[in-house]
From TrEMBL:
Protein name: Tyrosine-type recombinase/integrase family protein
Organism: Nonomuraea cypriaca
Record keywords, A-Z: DNA integration, DNA recombination, DNA-binding
Keyword DNA-binding: yes
PROSITE patterns: CB
UniProt-listed SUPFAM superfamilies: DNA breaking-rejoining enzymes
Molecular functions (GO terms): DNA binding
Family recorded in the similarity comment: Belongs to the 'phage' integrase family.
Length: 526
């Protein structure tokens, strides 16, 4: 029942909204002030009748834009930081440009449907368009409950929408790239060679053999390991606007994971390092804690790790450098020490390759193609060359001996698994367990998922199940190591080299290409 009051000589009416709060008006639908109390009460009764029929529109909503409402909606969210960050990304990247200027009451299902199709037409995945629509629907549904609009125009009834889109989305999910255990070891080895950090190899193996999420890997500390061969997954480390914060795993999925003994030993041997985050940061932001997996000075950013290490290791090229091949010096080690990249040769065009040099982190001295003979002599002596011998060498001879590529050692890495992501390692772990017939209860626990079925309510994980899983993971690792050893019995990555020690005679099979650019001085041969 609406109630009225007289204020400053004018009648005002208030009525209750579906959300429990109240709306008010001092003017009728024509913009004229109420002439008397009865007119004001009749207006309020009409508003409440519209609410009951589900056709109510807030009189003030005609002027309220989506941007105004969404900004207020976002400020009042009380969700996990990573969730609010995802909402903000969708609002800024896809939603505001299309709806920010529109009044809430002017947004229609047809406008929403055309916008969703335009997101896909712009080259984004169907799943991205659906996620953006879900965020839009959340905003508009709250606006509906608050009485700002009569219905949610972004809500899609069950069973509606093109069946083809749903099938495409299912196909894309099924086609997610995931590695075999052998491929995971090869890619992890390459990543460690590219980064110069042995712990990156262990991180890749840990991701593949446990299914940890990226944020959970970054949050591992020395206390995450217990003495019973288990890994405590109690935290995640996430970036928010350039700052790192600690939070509980996704959906509160804290858990303890069983590790095979060999993997537990690898992780335990890692020397923890303190990150460069400010120590005076306020909780929950990182305050410079010791973690197991760190970049040069700070935590790994997913995009940078993928661009610099994961994709070059998995694809054999630098995607952000025009797909320049990853070159390596394989004269003394396999799969070779990574070198600075250069563009591929153009058929029929004379090619002068750049000087052979290691990637920037390993480049000794400052000698290059413009260095004087004296500088090259000094560099050669630093490398242990005989002074009297070097003194008799010409500049060209010094260049050939110390800087120019060696035809018998220069190789380029072949692709192993294009389009792999770190999340693909999580898919791999689930797939390996499925293929090994591991019980569902243990798989759900290990992946940090929730199973609401009746069988899950009454089923429990046993020690026998855990033992079967550890046996499976060790068998997968042993077979992958045997195949890696058949390529070469040694590795420049010490922890992998130790694992390969003592395994029979190799049968060398190439996993790199020597079809490198030809030069006028020599033809590069295998």
């Amino acid at each position: 029942m609406p109630f009225t009051e007289e204020r400053n000589g004018r009648w005002r009416v208030r009525w209750r909204l579906p959300a429990g709060n109240y709306a008010s008006a001092t003017y009728d639908e024509y913009g004229a002030p109420f002439p008397d109390e009865e007119s004001a009460r009749a207006y309020g009764l009409n508003m409440e009748a519209d609410i009951r029929r589900g056709i109510y529109k807030d009189p003030r909503a005609e002027q309220l834009t989506f941007r105004e409402y969404a900004e207020d909606w976002y400020r009042n969210l009380d969700l996990e930081r990573s969730t609010t960050q995802s909402y903000r990304r969708m609002l800024r990247g896809h939603i505001m440009a299309a709806f920010g200027h529109l009044a809430l009451v002017n947004i229609t299902p047809d406008i929403v449907n055309r916008w969703e199709r335009s997101v896909v037409a712009a080259g984004y995945a169907i799943s991205t368009a659906r996620t953006a629509r879900a965020v839009l629907s959340s905003v508009l549904d709250d606006a509906r409950r608050a009485g700002r609009i009569a219905s949610n125009p972004a809500e899609k009834p069950r069973g509606k929408g093109r069946k083809a889109d749903r099938r495409i989305e299912v196909f894309e999910q099924a086609a997610k790239v995931w590695p075999s255990p052998f491929e995971a070891i090869l890619i992890g080895e390459r990543i460690a060679l590219l980064s110069g950090r042995e712990r990156d190899f262990v991180m890749v193996l840990l991701a593949a053999w446990t299914g940890l999420r990226w944020s959970e890997l970054l949050a591992l500390t020395p206390s995450s390991l217990d003495e019973r061969g288990r890994l405590k997954v109690h935290w995640k480390l996430y970036e928010d606007d350039g700052r790192w914060y600690w939070g509980r795993p996704k959906d509160g999925s804290m858990r303890i994971i069983d590790l095979p003994e060999w993997l537990w030993e690898m992780v335990r041997a890692i020397r923890p390092r303190r990150c460069g985050c400010p120590k005076d940061a306020a909780a929950p932001f990182c305050q410079g804690r010791e973690v197991l997996f760190l970049g040069e000075r700070t935590h790994h950013r997913r995009s940078a790790f993928s661009r610099l290490y994961l994709r070059p290791a998995a694809e054999g090229v630098y995607p952000t450098k025009g797909n320049a091949p990853v070159l390596a010096d394989a004269a003394t080690s396999w799969p070779g020490e990574p070198l600075a990249s250069w563009p591929a040769a153009v058929p029929g065009v004379a090619y002068e390759p750049p000087l052979l040099r290691r990637i920037a982190r390993q480049t000794p001295g400052q000698v290059n193609a413009r260095s004087q003979r004296a500088e090259l002599v000094a560099y050669a002596i630093e490398q242990g060359a005989d002074e009297q011998l070097v003194a008799r060498m010409s500049r060209e001879a010094l260049m050939d001996a110390y800087l120019r590529p060696r035809a018998d050692g220069l190789v380029s890495w072949l692709p192993i698994l294009p389009d792999l992501t770190m999340h693909g390692l999580r898919h791999a772990h689930q797939t390996w367990m499925d293929d090994g017939a591991i019980k569902t209860a243990l798989k759900v626990e290990r992946m940090g998922h929730t199973d609401y079925t009746i069988s899950a309510r009454y089923g429990h994980v046993t020690d026998t199940m855990r033992g079967e899983l550890l046996d499976l993971l060790t068998a997968l690792r042993d077979e992958a190591l045997r195949r890696r050893w058949e390529l070469s019995p040694r590795s420049s990555v010490r922890v992998l080299d130790d694992a390969l020690a003592g395994i029979g005679s190799p049968v060398v099979a190439p996993l790199f290409s020597q079809n490198s650019p030809k030069t006028q001085r020599a033809r590069l041969t295998g």
